[in-house]
Design a protein that fits this description.
116 residues, two-stranded antiparallel sheet, mainly alpha, 4 helices
Length: 116
């Protein structure tokens, strides 16, 4: 499959690791690094998500249907909120970069909300 990039034709499969050689090796290492970096975050998320369902249903007595609606509403909110925040972060121009100011503001807010 060919794709035009800056006036010249480029083989799109090369970008996705279909070619052989050193370029493919770099792509594979990068994919592995990104995948392994998310393992810890995803394990913590699944542990907390599994526990919160048990806690709300068995300890607090919330019905399974209500929990499903609550979790679905959170995912729908994320579906709209994430692209909007992506645009806001992409348009942020500070001397510290695009994302660092959001990390400096968001981390204390997240810590405070977890402690409450």
């Amino acid at each position: 499959m060919k794709m035009r990039r800056r006036g010249k034709s480029v083989n799109i499969f090369r970008w996705y690791g279909k070619s052989k050689g050193k370029y493919n090796e770099i792509i594979s290492k990068r994919k592995t690094a990104f995948g392994l970096g998310a393992v810890g975050k995803d394990m913590v998320y699944m542990l907390s998500a599994s526990y919160i369902l048990y806690y709300y249903q068995d300890v607090l007595g919330v019905s399974a249907m209500a929990m499903g609606i609550i979790l679905m509403a959170a995912r729908v909110f994320d579906a709209f909120n994430d692209p909007i925040m992506g645009v806001i972060v992409a348009k942020t121009r500070t001397r510290w970069g695009k994302f660092r100011p959001w990390l400096l503001v968001g981390t204390p807010c997240a810590m405070r909300s977890c402690c409450i």
